[in-house]
Amino acid sequence: MGDHLVYTIGRQCGSMGRIIGQKLAEDIGVKCYDNELLTEAAKNSGLCEELFQTHDEKPTNSFLYSLVMDTYSLGYNTSAYMDMPINHKIFLAQFDTIKKLASEESCVIIGRCADYALADYPNTVTVFITGNEDQRIKHLMEVHHVNADKARDIMIKTDKKRSSYYNYYSSKKWGDAKGYDLCLNSSLTGVDGAVYLIREFAKVKAEHAKL
Question: What DSSP element (H or E) covers 126?
């Protein structure tokens, strides 16, 4: 898949994970894919982009993981794929897009089970960003212009959605430290500190791999 280095960012709601990912990409001079990934996946798959916006990171209780992985291995012309619900097709399109991006360029990818999609790709740095609850609520209050109770509601519901999506579509557990290379508390590091630590960790990981 080439020598490109891909950073994947999982994040708790309100932890500034997206801002950290964007700043990281800016500092090292690469693209950051978040909502942009949906557009890319829509272009690659030919599926309607509006459907991606509707189904983004939403799990489905009827998802059959083995069926989808078999379809992914066999190709998209099988009857299994043709009969597959739109949720599953969208997941596969994103899965493909993530792997395609990793083969073509160094980049930062936020969310979308990117760390799982690139599990067999050595040139990755998988990061999970967390934060203290009070700081996360404060950040959400500022971003969404809401009070503390509403911010807490947004935080809980968003994390539940992300967790359900990740746990459903991958074989790992969202936010479980052992599933990531590096876990950071942005309440302790700030944005710049988190970016610095991620970049330094990438250097250490690369040097250790040579040994």
Answer: strand 124-130
Tens-digit pLDDT string for the chain (211 aa)? 457 899 999 999 999 999 999 999 999 999 999 877 777 877 777 777 777 777 666 654 444 444 444 444 445 555 666 677 777 788 888 888 899 999 999 999 999 899 999 999 989 999 999 999 999 999 999 999 999 999 999 999 999 999 998 998 888 899 999 999 999 999 999 999 999 999 999 999 999 988 8
**Distance between CA atoms of 5 and 41, rounded to whole angstroms?**
20
CA pair distance 136, 54, nearest whole angstrom: 26
How long, in residues, is the chain?
A: 211
Q: Give the start-to-end residue ranges of the domains of the chain.
A: 6-210
Q: Which CATH superfamily is domain 6-210 in?
A: P-loop containing nucleotide triphosphate hydrolases (3.40.50.300)
- Note the pTM of the prediction, 2 decimals: 0.84
Question: CA–CA separation, 122 vs 104, rounded Å?
Answer: 14
For residue 125, the tally of other CB atoms under 10 A from its CB is 22
What the block records as the tokens of 115 is 């760390």
Q: Is 6 helix (H, G, I), strand (E, B) or coil?
A: strand
Task: Specify whether the CB–CB gap between 125 and 20 falls below 8 A.
Answer: no
Alpha helices in 76-147 (DSSP H): 79-82, 86-104, 114-117, 133-144
CA distance 65 to 56: 17
* CA terminus-to-terminus distance, the chain: 21
